[in-house]
Amino acid sequence: MNEIAVELRNVSKVFPADTKADEDLAAIQNVSLQIRHGEFFTLLGPSGCGKTTTLRIIAGFETPTSGDVFIKGKQMNDCPPHHRPVNTVFQNYALFPHLNVAQNIAFGLEMKHTSKAEIAERTQRVLKLVQLPDLGARKPNQLSGGQQQRVALARALVNEPAVLLLDEPLGALDLKLRKEMQIELKHLQTKLNITFIYVTHDQEEALTMSDRIAVMNNGQVLQVDSPINIYERPTSRFVAEFIGKTNFLSGRVLAGSSRETSMVLAGETVDVPLQESQWMGGDSVTLAVRPEKLQLHHDVPAPNGYRKIALHGQVREAVYAGTDTHYVVVLQSGEEVTVHMRNTFNHNLGEFAPGEAVVVTCPTEALRPLAG
Ligand SMILES: Nc1ncnc2c1ncn2[C@@H]1O[C@H](COP(=O)(O)OP(=O)(O)OP(=O)(O)O)[C@@H](O)[C@H]1O
Fold it and tell me: Which domain holds residue 177?
């Protein structure tokens, strides 16, 4: 599992300006990534952040302006796409409309002069794998979106690539089918033990499918981590904000020691134990905290053994949302936080009404200090 399948070392891509008046565009800047064999690795970020460019550089459809690409330890910068041990599945599937499903799948093998018997055997095997064993004779326009997507996948898998590159492969499907295909794709990837490099701007898709995620913005990789760490331990404001919903609390450090720091947070003095003593007295800090880590109370709760901070505020809004109730609370500093309370038997619906004074608590380990 630890063998490196794909490595990018300081890869940048600059697209020259169309006219003299325009500036050159740095689509990706100094991207370094190590993707392990058998890993489901996702490039996640907003539109235009450089995900597709990164994927196309791995595939060989784009040449890096600087930096190196390695696949299975071999430098690939000058290797044409069809000689790389990778295949790409595009969002629009790119099936040949005049060929039937089996012919679409067999196309790559025919180009390589594989024997007829082997082509027939491998085509049937991948059709079964993507659960379309009986549709080989159909034309692409006789298939649903989900079926076309499966054919595109089968067409890539039949080449038995070491690495499969997938560029928003589920983007054209409706939500229900998309969810089903997410499970199927993940299942297939685990079963075949192929390295998947997957591009999406859908954070939920990335969190549910990936072994690791690289979050990108403005052509740069901001954090590479497991889904749990990306969500629970974002290292920058961008990552915290892009993935899920987050509250930001601004603080000022009063006195620092290696284990505990007193700070003024949202207008109140609290003690926050620290892993690292990265702050000095007078420093400004931003702490991120997820809405579901916050709890509302009528009064400051009695200590129960867990380290918590407690902040006073007033409910501004309470919205019932099925499994949760979403509260907006104005803290003493005037900052607002969103609190998601589960609608379990512990939490009476309508318990905290707008205008009511409340105490917001949070376990100290749920407060994430952010850089930048
Ligand atoms: N061939 C090209 N010529 C000029 N600029 C390009 C070219 N390809 C991409 N770009 C630009 O590079 C930047 C990164 O584009 P890229 O397609 O990699 O982003 P993306 O994250 O995949 O976006 P999306 O999610 O919208 O597909 C964008 O500003 C884009 O306009």
Answer: 4-242
